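Because discrete structure vocabularies remain unfamiliar, it helps to consider an illustrative case, giving the amino acid sequence and backbone structure tokens:
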Amino acid sequence: MSFRLKGFERKPLEDKYDVIVVGAGPAGLSAALYAARYKLKTLLIGETIGGQLASAGLVDDYPGFIEVEASQLIQSFVRHVEKHGVPIERDRVEDIKRDGDFFSIYTRSGRVYKARAVIIAVGLERKKLGVPGEAEFAGRGVSYCTVCDVPFFKGKRIVIVGGGNSGVTGAIHAVGYASKIYLVTRGEKLRAFPIYVEALNKHSDKIEVIFNSTVSEIGGDREVRYAVIKNLKTGETRKVDVEGVFIEIGNQPPTDFFKKIGLEVDEHGLIDVKPGGYTNIEGIFAAGDCAGGKNKYYFQQVVVSAAEGASAADAAFKWIIQKKYPIMGLSSF
């Protein structure tokens, strides 16, 4: 399924491109924009438009925007990309293989595209609890994005698992919807930024913080009806009646995918990159939260990911020129 905004004509999909960007978060959107500005024929493929930014609420640290809803910032990115004629496909890339002077990109939908260069900007994936009932009730009360899904739980009781920024900001956002919020964290204190903890404490009438604990079981009938909260120090359990369980325990890279296509990874499972996003495979570049290695200062911020996407596009353009490949995008001008 494709994604587009009104106001710009969408170019029909073709089979061959100068650059294919894999991942539609800030890094991928920025890479696609810069590649298109270099007149490279570009395709952007991603499952979630906006990536992890799509699960955020209010963004107050992106230059030029004092405060902006994440959804509005994503729309601004997308409009800018589509203004330059880049098609955006909502699909999942499952394999990338070298095919002569091209890479073949295989997607879940069965499409196969070819590109001279590939920029991987897939970000990170949500971690799972791995407890009974989690998989069974996914999409039926279990969610991995509080900001995205809590509006569907207006007037209901929910559990949020996670004491970091995502869990705490999710709980703050949920105050406007849920009737009762249990915020469960494994630690003895919350790990979120102090400004978020301070905001959370203003809602003690609705939010109950449970320390040194986790959710050990999720149950119900057709939908979630309860969660079991286990104290990790005493082993005691407590069953709470809830309609929603929101899991906000962090993210992890899709390391198996990276290894499948032959990319070298660092000790954290991130793609090992050199400055500019160069990887061990000539013609494949990486940017954003999925890129790491000793040559990179790792800082998970939207502005950093956007900058890395731009750098990767610049590196890909220079590599294509160095290889003396004809630029397909120039045929349209």
User: Anything to note?
Assistant: The chain is about 25% helix and 30% strand. Confidence is low (pLDDT under 50) at residues 1-9. Helices lie at 26-37, 70-83, 146-149, 165-174, 194-201, 255-260, 302-322. The first strand starts at residue 16 and ends at 22.
